[in-house]
Amino acid sequence: MSASRERSIAVIGVGCRFPGGVDSAAGLWRLAAEGRQTAGPVPADRWDAARLAALHDPGLVARAAQGCFLDGDVWSWDPRAFSVAANEERWVDPQFRLLMEVAWEAVEHTGVPMDRMRGSRTGVYVGTYAPDNLFREARPVEDAPNSSYLFGNFTAGAAGRVAFAMDLRGPVMVVSTHCSSGLVAMDVACGALTLGECDMALAGGVLLMLSPETHYFEAPLLLSERGACLAFDARADGYVRGEGAGVLVLQRLEDALEAGARVLAVIRGSAVNNDGQAGRLTAPSTDLQQRVFREAVARAGVDPGDVGLVEAHGPGTALGDPIEYTSIQAVYGQGRGRCALGSVKTNIGHSEPVSGIAGVIKAVECLRRGRVPPNRGFEVWNPAIPRAEESRLFVPTDLTDWPVAGAARLAAVCSYGVTGTNAHTILEAAPSGPSRRARASQARLFLVSAGSAGALSAGAERLGAWIEGDGAECDLADVAHTLAVRRRHADHRLAVVAGTRGELAGRERVVTGVPVLPPDHAGPVLVFTGQGSQRPGMGRALLASEPVFAAAVDELEPLVRAESGLSLREMIAGPGELTGIERIQPALFGVQVALAALWRSWGVVPAAVIGQSLGEVAAAVVAGVLSPADGAKVICRRSALLSTISGGAMASVLLDAGTVRAALGEVGADGVCVAVEAGPGITVISGDVAQVAGLVERWNAAGGRGPGDRCGGRLALAAGRPDPGRPARRAGRSLRYGAWRRVLLHGERGSVCSGSAGRGVLGA
């Protein structure tokens, strides 16, 4: 892939799973920075390593009985989330399952809502090669035909299932060049973007070790008896195989910047070639490695002497390490500063078709952070490596600052296949964005959703862990914004209100409670507001442009006029300020009922309705509990009654109700009462205007003033006033309650709860 500066490719999203509990790019960085190694015995649910090794060669026991395996259960998954047919669930290769999950997470990492991805010209390019599940699930010929087994395991399914799960409609293909598969897949994806074959691309790879066959094929010549990959070290005796999956989301840099995407790094150029007959089929060639390096550097248009990190293939083999060092030294050994020689295989093993992608993810994190982690286990150079005294190459043994100062950070990544396919890419740190002002803390809404209750719980747990870990430095406003507008909102949902990390801590994990809707029901919910949302001319444009809205208002017009003597049309379309409760509340009622009718005409049929204060009346009309005539009667008489009540005020304070009541007693404010216990530490008081004002001044001076100002004094009841609700209750006895429309819950009836009364008011 050739890319000028103007035609570079942006990395805008990353998803991954690697040993050691790694499930993010930041997690891979942390594991490498801490110098951890993840090799261990073969899990019992894969195969009996000791028994099988003894069948062949006792000397293979140590080599074949270990690997770098993923944590947890690689067999469990949620097939419904990926549109997998029920008859195929049993047979889908666990590698494909893992790849679909990681690809989904990579897209979410971009901040592009999944709904916008569906039907898009997005390509999928996947590197894979190990048919372990075919070995494990081998079927006798007499079981044929079994199309579910075939389509669950054939190689093309790795990329095809990702595309199907997300409804992606760009080029989709599998690349199989053994260990270089992932980096070659990325090169092909970059080329497709450059040629305009797709607008976005997913490039990655996957490997799970599910059966012993492939493991044992590699053991005699390639696997380490020490159980560690010691790249470039004198003790190196081979590598440890490692599981993993990694997916990068790529976009043309100019498109990413125009769309406001977060750019993690820039791919400046890449190249692919093959050794041909330069040597044996499986022997690496320093000449061809150097050639692919130089081609990538030329296409990137950079000086190799400015590269600060070469993330090497670095498998720790006696043959491969000296040849690779010679190649890297020839191209990158001279220049400004020093150049680190890295190998993530020292941490997570050799993930074969994923290894190049793992190297890119590590390099991206190094570029972003300006630091290079150590190569785990490196002590003494392999004596077979022909080191040059003047070389700028070094193997980091500690967390090291970026070794080239005063220039854009550049990194290179190498990957080679066992049959001679070499891949190389040049990465640059992302362009710096504009500086941002710090934002004041304020309450925000944090949304989490999933396709099932179990997935919601797991997602909330992951969010909580991220907030406290890798996301500890992120602006909470950005987190809330991303969760709200850059995520797909599934059926099972959790909403948390918090203004600080302390308030958010733990709340996102609270996902138990009473379901709002039964599990077999789904659909939109309409929420109807109380007083305070009115504005001049709030229905004027809709009356002029939407016939359905106008018809709904016209239906209510004579009903409101008969009860109040006022014109609904004039109230919601008039140019002047809407004042007076007797005008505001009927106007809001009418607008909301008409809006619900408009939404219905567009196909948005509510599964439930919720109303607050006067919004309860509109919600009841939309649900069919009240007729439009009775709804107009309730709202007009309610507002007329409230307009007769004067002489009071309300205020909210950031104090708990007990403290407020004690303060009322201390100052003798017998004309004020606690009106609402709005929540822990938030209380609303109401009563005599002068006494409320005095209390507000007192608490304000002490720092206890709340988020709400004193409300205009026509709604609050002073303590001890006669009950004004008796006339309203008498009027309510004339109302006729209708049956539910099929609008909320299920069946033909449901339950009505009143937020004002705090209890059920109409049952099934």
From TrEMBL:
For this protein, the record's PROSITE patterns field holds:
KS3_2 (PS52004)
The Ketosynthase family 3 (KS3) domain is annotated at: 6-429
State the organism named in the record.
Actinomadura harenae
- Going by the entry's taxonomy, the superkingdom of the source organism is recorded as Bacteria
Q: Which UniProt keywords apply?
A: Phosphopantetheine, Phosphoprotein
Offer an example of a GO molecular function term for this protein.
fatty acid synthase activity
- Name of the protein in its database record: Polyketide synthase
| A GO cellular component annotation in the UniProt record | plasma membrane
User: Which PANTHER family does the annotation name?
Assistant: FATTY ACID SYNTHASE, SI:DKEY-61P9.11
Q: Which SMART domains match?
A: PKS_AT (SM00827), PKS_KS (SM00825)
Coiled-coil annotated spans: none
InterPro entries from the entry?
Ac_transferase_dom_sf (IPR001227), Acyl_transferase_dom (IPR014043), Acyl_Trfase/lysoPLipase (IPR016035), Ketoacyl_synth_C (IPR014031), Ketoacyl_synth_N (IPR014030), PKS_assoc (IPR032821), PKS_Beta-ketoAc_synthase_dom (IPR020841), PKS_NRPS_Biosynth_Enz (IPR050091)
- GO BP: DIM/DIP cell wall layer assembly; fatty acid biosynthetic process
Q: Which Pfam families match?
A: Acyl_transf_1, KAsynt_C_assoc, ketoacyl-synt, Ketoacyl-synt_C
